[in-house]
Amino acid sequence: MAKKIEKAKLKKAPNEQVEKSNAEQEQGKSRHNEMRDTIESIIIALVFAFVFRAYSAEAFVIPTGSMAPTLYGRHKELHCAECGVKYAVGASDELVEKTEYYVPDYKVTGAFCPNCRYYTNLQDAMPFTGDRIIVNKFPFDYGDPGRWDVIVFKYPEASQTNYIKRLVGLPGEEIQISRGDVYARKNEKEPFQILRKDNLDKQLTVQQLVYDDDYPPREILEYGWPERWSPMQQVKPVETRFEDLKQSAWELDRESRAYQFKGAAGKAGKLEWLRYQHIVPRQSEWALLQENPELFTQTMLSSPPQSRLISDYTAYNNYSGGSSSGLFTYDAAFWVGDLTLSFDVEIQSETGEFLVELMRGDRHYRVRFDVKTGQARLYFVEDFPNPEPVETELTTVETDLKGKGGYSIMFANVDQRLCLWVNGSAVDLGTATEYQPPVSPAPRDGDLAPAGVTGVGIDFTVSHLMLQRDIYYRADEYYQNQEYSGDRRHLWELLWDPAAWSRQYEDHRQQVRFDKMSDDEFFVLGDNSARSADSRLWGNSRQAEHRHAVPRSALVGKAFMIYWPHGIPFMNDGRGYSPSVGPLKRFFYHQTRPGEYPDDPYAKLSVPFYPNVSRMKRIR
């Protein structure tokens, strides 16, 4: 649950000692004047600092993970011991709420990798405090915050508490949450419209890792676990299902993670894709590998694991230990169809076509590059319920992907809109690639292999493949009225079967609506939807007309930047040193109550450390 944003404690800098020369000692009056000037300067500086803090900007500390992974609360950081991916896991549960006192029974002892689900022991890992941020209070004096801005405000149910969330609903809007997306309207006679992120930097900020092919779990792969990227083709033109190819135009270098397509001399026919399958190990499979590698390999041969639907799994929420230990193991049961695929491609032909595809339900969303002209055509092909595939063109644009050479590509299908980047720059598509969803929004078998690349009459090599997903906003509501009323674990187990998952979900799902707000009210959501106490879930002890709304008078400011994430310890194998004797101990070790320490000492700070520059950034 989200808690208040605690104001950062700012320490006054000690007064510098003024060196006294022999001449100054002889001139008492001059010395007195200089001291007076110094004191006046300090007072003026402090006044300016307080004015700046009161009216322009203020520093805050993020205590919880309600905005993760955009902003970290108290957390632990690690590199996966199996694949090497760096990630963070929440550790706010370790402390008594609204205090700094540690509860030993709630210690976070392990985490599960977002890339390969490998469990890493964190028993001896030191936690870090939340991100320290600067909040700009100046903009709201001259206008309202913008949609999708990250804002700080006074919690409506307790005005002395600061909250930080992402602003989603604007004054005068009625809000609806359905299937992970947010919709709004101002007139009840009009249909709800999906809320897209006009600023693509904000859209990219909230994408979460599904799989980074630069960090494969090599050990489990060596013992027979299937690769996630492999050659495939569509079974039938109108059947949204793919099957493995034993022979294809693809040459796979698993060591360097580079995949070459040799199709320049090939004949036109079925498209031969390199496609992603979401084949993720469970903890039982990791345990079998560690206990009996030979039996693991035999099991892979006799009963190979299957792909499943991509869900709203968030590694920040999944850990052992802590007061929420195990609660989120089967919680991530909701299918996410909004995906972003990025990679590098080396084009080795002067002519031909290069295709990228993202599946969602009955539709193949594609971008088709003509290498000779540099033009890119964005369109979708719809299978069911048509007797033949139906192609709908959205737009054709000029791009920098022209001729032989290396290019960086990113293709996204998010919020019912296609987006394209070439060499790090967004291609201007206007509103042409915004589309209406199909009649049936349910997942299909094609969503078990939702992303792919291929070519026609061309040679190329792709590498650095990374798949990400969009935020899934849960349609939860106050009084435990949740998006899914059935058995969450059962729904999770059906992710391997899209048709069964869809039936179960539809039988127990809800979409929620929040009444139209007044002209001075806003609707906010946390980026970590599964663990955010936001507009959806607030009580109403204040007896407001709209319990879900933040009044304009409660706005504090716009989150501007992370100025100090936390220090990174070095020396002593990267752990630094934590003095445990004398008066310094209380600064370096957790207390369970004033003056009392746990039997198993638990460090909270170590020295020396250096700045975590990589996370010092503008908040989008």
From TrEMBL:
Protein name: Signal peptidase I
Species classification: Bacteria, Pseudomonadati, Planctomycetota, Planctomycetia, Planctomycetales
Organism of provenance: Gimesia maris
Keyword Ribosomal protein: no
Bilayer disposition of the protein: Single-pass type II membrane protein
Region annotation Disordered: where it falls in the sequence: 1-33
InterPro entries found in the cross-reference section: LexA/Signal_pep-like_sf (IPR036286), Pept_S26A_signal_pept_1 (IPR000223), Pept_S26A_signal_pept_1_CS (IPR019758), Pept_S26A_signal_pept_1_Lys-AS (IPR019757), Peptidase_S26 (IPR019533)
Recorded GO MF terms: serine-type endopeptidase activity; signal peptidase activity
Residue ranges constituting the Peptidase S26 domain according to the UniProt record: 129-192, 513-564
Residue positions of the active site: 66, 165
Cellular component annotations (GO), alphabetically ordered: membrane
Places the protein is found: Membrane
One record GO biological process: signal peptide processing
